[in-house]
């Protein structure tokens, strides 16, 4: 079920979820660094 470009829909969703988790965990640290 591999697509021609090498990405399946499940892989794309997993990447988006991982990036979202990383963004939500890293954003407060960057914001606190900018504020303080």
Task: Report on the architecture of this protein.
With 36 residues, the protein is mainly α. Helices cover 75% and strands 0% of the residues. The longest helix is centred in the middle third of the chain and has 27 residues. The chain is rod-shaped, with a radius of gyration of 15 Å. The relative contact order is 0.10.
Strand content: under 5%
Low-confidence stretches are none
Helix content: over 70%
Number of helices: 1
List the secondary-structure elements in sequence, H or E: H
Overall mean pLDDT? 85
Q: What is the CA-CA span between the terminal residues?
A: 49 Å
What is the β-strand count? Answer: 0
Sequence-ordered SSE layout with sheet pairings:
Elements: H1 9-35
Key terms for this structure?
36 residues; mainly alpha; 1 helix; 75% helix
Summarize the entry for a quick read.
With 36 residues, the protein is mainly α. It contains 1 helix and no strands.
């Amino acid at each position: 079920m591999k697509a021609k470009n090498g990405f399946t829909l499940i892989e794309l969703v997993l990447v988006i979820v991982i990036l979202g988790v990383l963004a939500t965990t890293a954003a407060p640290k960057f914001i606190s660094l900018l504020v303080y």
